[in-house]
Specification:
By secondary structure, this protein is of the alpha/beta class. The protein has one domain. 35% of the residues lie in helices and 15% in strands. The chain has 4 helices and 4 strands.
Length: 123
């Protein structure tokens, strides 16, 4: 089983380090995903088999910060989100949980879906 993990996308090093430090207190590992890996399936980024290996789907990339949470229990999830609202951290509106529905998506597909949802909620 994959341990409680948060994947980070496009975070400045200092913000990633701060989140990593906070998450460590909850026994959550934090992994920065390099832009050249954005085309890989989300599951593959976490070591989860997502089907036959092949050429990754084309992905143009994005620059917004984004978080993907995997296997956090309810207490970890709630506490982690609370910590993200603490002082010294920028707001990261694009956050998701890994699901059976999105495990085969790549980071760009997840980003695009979250951006659409975020824009719809802002209306």
């Amino acid at each position: 089983m994959i341990p409680a993990t948060v994947l980070t996308f496009n975070l400045p090093d200092d913000v990633h380090a701060r989140i990593e430090s906070l998450a460590a207190t909850l026994d959550i590992r934090v992994v920065a995903v390099a832009p050249e890996r954005f085309a890989l399936p989300l599951g593959a980024l976490l070591g989860i088999p997502t089907g036959p290996a092949g050429v990754p789907k084309e992905a143009s990339g994005f620059s917004d910060p984004m978080l993907l949470m995997c296997n956090l229990d309810e207490a970890q999830f709630n506490r982690f989100l609370q910590m993200l609202r603490g002082p010294g951290l920028p707001r990261i509106p694009l956050k998701a949980v890994l699901t059976p529905h999105n495990v085969s998506w790549n980071a760009v597909q997840l980003h695009d879906e979250l951006a659409r949802e975020h824009a719809a909620m802002g209306r």
